[in-house]
Design a protein that fits this description.
With 477 residues, this protein is mainly alpha-helical. The protein has 23 helices and 3 strands.
Length: 477
């Protein structure tokens, strides 16, 4: 009887992520563990330890060879480069930046990987002694005065499946599943579940949906073992869609490391499916995520790659062009940014009839919001604030989290335009949604708002916002 493979959770550590991904590629390429070891001229036991997350690879050349044999396109090499064998103590925060800036937020986000790999740690927004606000990996045993407030716990999933999902999924034992158990077909069941989870996400936030999405991915994979032909292909496509959705949920939490991991999975699996529209969409999402990270290089390059992959004159090409516009704004290229937005506007009527199910939300309002994002980055705060305000009014009911994101971005724009009272009032509304949904995207904007309002901190409205914002934060001892 063959030994059952060790259950790995990719979010537990970079080493587990490498092993999990190695196994995914090996099984997709139909290699046995022993067969791959022979091809790579290495011992079966060494490869098994890599795959089980028991020992990280030491030799880059060996990783490159395995990556080449599995046609992984450099994914395994990239994951190997991210493995950090040093042991760090969660909760010990060293911050060199004195203010909340792109540097300090980037430093804070670098802690996600550490928190994800250490079950004793919790990832929350915290006020440091110098007054700056960052996301930190906290040890439950120290660092905090008075513990984590209810607001911080609600906003960032302390004690919820969003933080604990690695433990839950790692311990999940999935029995054999029978397709006959479903009233319709398993495919219809998981499609309906995904639609419900998408609605739930916008109303309640990502924390409540992540555990179910991760478990459904594993359940779909289990069903695929005994499925062939058209049904197997459909399940694989659904698995890819769930992976992209998992990436989105982590992106909204502000956990860019896990968001990138699941987008990489979706991109790999989309090639297995052979759905060119789905692959193009995932590539466009990579550009969007790069924009969220304010990556001055990758966002434009990824958006252009997505346009090359998309069908000419298609909706997905327009989606990618929208994300390219924001990339140009991040670079300070106003004319290029506006030209890209105008190109998208000019094709909206034509692409609305595109039969692809991806990017169906692309409409004039969506394009306007992305233009407003670009204008705010470019320093055109008044115009950006007006566009965000109109977008908020036009949002349908039920888009609670999206409303919060728009409110937070509008507040930052109002502050930039020299309207601190309005910025503080709108910021308080966004803070309510952040607490309701746990959206890290909202909190990242409110961190910026808290800092830019400092010159007006004695004004009553501004003071009220900053006090309420401070109440949801952990604090350095």
């Amino acid at each position: 009887m063959s030994q059952r493979p060790k259950v790995l959770t990719p979010d537990q550590s970079p080493v587990h992520r490498f092993g999990y991904t190695l196994r995914e590629f090996r099984e997709a390429r139909r290699y046995s563990l022993r067969g791959l070891a022979e091809k790579a001229f290495m011992s079966h036991s060494k490869l098994q330890k890599w795959e089980n997350g028991e020992r990280p690879p030491k030799d880059r050349a060996e990783v490159e060879l395995v990556d080449s044999l599995l046609r992984a396109g450099g994914v395994l090499v990239d994951l190997w480069e991210r493995i950090n064998p040093s042991v760090s103590v969660p909760g010990r925060v060293s911050v060199s930046a004195p203010h909340v800036s792109e540097a300090s937020i980037g430093l804070a986000m670098a802690g996600v990987q550490q928190a994800a790999s250490d079950h004793e740690g919790t990832f929350v927004p915290a006020r440091l002694r110098d007054g700056s606000v960052v996301f930190v990996a906290l040890d439950r045993r120290d660092l905090l005065r008075g513990g984590v407030g209810l607001g911080a716990a609600a906003a960032f999933g302390v004690g919820t499946p969003a933080v604990a999902d690695a433990e839950v999924v790692q311990g999940l034992k999935l029995p054999a599943r029978s397709a006959a158990a479903y009233s319709g077909t398993p495919i219809e069941h998981f499609k309906r579940a995904r639609r419900l989870l998408i609605d739930n996400d916008n109303l309640l936030g990502p924390a409540t949906a992540i555990k179910a999405v991760r478990e459904n991915i594993e359940r779909i994979k289990t069903l695929r073992r005994d499925t062939q032909g058209v049904d197997s292909q459909a399940l694989m496509e659904l698995q890819t869609q769930y992976a992209e959705f998992a990436s989105w949920l982590y992106q909204d939490l502000g956990d860019f490391t896990r968001a990138e991991f699941w987008l990489d999975r979706a991109f790999q699996w989309s090639h297995t499916v052979g759905d060119s529209d789905l692959t193009s969409y995932v590539m466009a999402r990579k550009a969007q995520l790069a924009g969220e990270k304010r990556d001055l290089v990758d966002v434009v390059d990824l958006a252009e790659a997505a346009q090359r992959m998309a069908r000419p004159r298609s909706r997905l090409a327009a989606v990618a062009r929208t994300y390219e516009s924001y990339g140009h704004a991040l670079r300070g290229e106003f004319s290029d940014s506006e030209r890209a937005i105008d190109d998208v506007r000019n094709v909206l009527d034509r692409v609305s009839s595109d039969a692809t199910p991806w990017g169906v939300w692309l409409n004039e309002q969506y394009v306007d919001v992305h233009r407003a994002q670009g204008l705010e980055v470019l320093g055109k705060h008044t115009e950006a604030a007006e566009i965000f305000t109109n977008a908020i009014k036009a949002l349908p009911e039920g888009y609670h989290r999206d409303r919060g994101v728009y409110l937070a971005r509008a507040a930052v724009a109002h502050a930039g335009a020299g309207a601190p009272e309005e910025a503080a009032a709108v910021g308080l509304q966004a803070l309510t949604v952040a607490n309701d949904t746990g959206s890290g995207r909202i909190m990242r904007e409110l961190i910026r708002l808290d800092q830019v309002l400092v010159p007006w901190q004695r004004q009553p409205e501004v003071s009220a916002f900053r006090e309420n914002f401070d109440a949801v934060l952990a604090h350095e001892a």
